[in-house]
Amino acid sequence: MTALITGASKGIGREFVIEFARHKIDVVIVARSKKLLNELAFFVKREYNVSTHVVCIDLSNINAAEELYEILKKKNLTVNYLVNNAGFGDYGEFAKSNLKKQSEMINLNILTLTKLTHLFVQDMKDRKYGKILNLASVAAFQPGPLMSVYFATKQYVLGFSEAISEELKRYNVQVTALCPGPTESDFGQVADFQMLKNPKPNRFPSAKAVAQYGYKMMIKGRVVAIHGIMNTIMTTLVRIVPRSLVRKIVRYRLK
Predict the structure, then answer these.
(1) 11: left (phi over 0), alpha (psi -120 to 50) or beta
(2) pLDDT tens digits along 178-236
(3) Considering only CA atoms, which of 15, 9, 56 is closest in space to residue 36?
(4) DSSP-assigned beta bridge partners for residue 6
(5) Could you give all domains of the chain from N- to C-terminal order, each with its CATH number?
């Protein structure tokens, strides 16, 4: 069995690699940083004695998904588990934002995820087996003033994952949308998000805890997996609170 994990060099993605390796599943690890990927590959091979394959590629590029798929085809690698973890956010008012960065975010968070799912799911259907985990967020359940595009991309990931999970049931291919809340990772630095840039110790769940939960829910075949009791309560409440109030609350929390 082999798992493909994108955004594997840091944070939740790195912890997913370790989690799969811990369960004796070979890994294909994908990100931009060759140095970090090679270090991770060496670590999991030494600790868990699994096969590791490193692919250094920028998945925000428009044709990156097709390139990655062809690379693995040439290596004759069969992907049984696909973890679409790669993604990033941005903080600030949309009108003042860098459009290039917003476009790259949409490409990575939505387009590349969709393409990779479409490419690898064909093989999973033919084999009548496969599991896909798409990293959504509790952001998927609400609008996000000051992080508008990021929240919108996660709404897409959740809706897309739920829809295709129903379509793929008869082929024994399962899809999970993992929805964590704020997590201790490098996300805050990339997004310039103050809440996560210098958090108090243990204020948020660790990337390891989120990855372990996500792996468990993926194996169980859970379609929507919300990490944490408070996050579960919050995503339930936003469905019954007036949308005008939700927008104000989210903006206040993101300030």
Answers:
(1) left
(2) 999 998 866 545 545 555 555 556 678 999 999 999 999 999 999 999 998 888 888 88
(3) 9
(4) 30
(5) 2-254 (3.40.50.720)
| Alpha-carbon span 45 to 70, nearest angstrom | 24
What backbone torsions phi and psi does residue 137 show, to the nearest 5 degrees? 180, 160
Task: Give CA–CA dist 210/226, Å, rounded.
Answer: 10
Tokens describing residue 243: 């949308």
Q: Which of 90, 87, 67 is closest to 133 using CA atoms?
A: 87
Helix %, strand %, coil % of the chain (to 5) = 55, 15, 30
SS3 102: helix
Nearest to 91 by CA among 102, 107, 81: 102
Q: How many CB atoms lie within 10 A of CB 189?
A: 12
Sign of the alpha-carbon dihedral angle for 125, 130, 136, 137: positive
Q: What is d(CA 45, CA 21) in angstroms, rounded to the nearest whole number? A: 8
Is the pTM value of this prediction over 0.85? yes
The pLDDT of residue 191: 45
What are the Cα distances from residue 124, in Å, to 40, 103, 159, 173, 175?
27, 30, 21, 7, 12
Distance CA 157, CA 26 (A): 26
Question: Are the beta carbons of 67 and 59 closer than 8 angstroms?
Answer: no
Going by C-beta distance under 8 Å and a sequence separation of 6 or more, which residues neighbour residue 68?
30, 55, 57, 59, 116
Are the beta carbons of 21 and 217 closer than 8 angstroms? no
Which residues, at least 6 apart from 66, have a Cβ–Cβ distance to it below 8 Å?
115, 119
Q: Which two tokens stand for residue 99?
A: 């459009």
CB 165 within 8 A of CB 174: yes
Rg (CA), the chain: 18
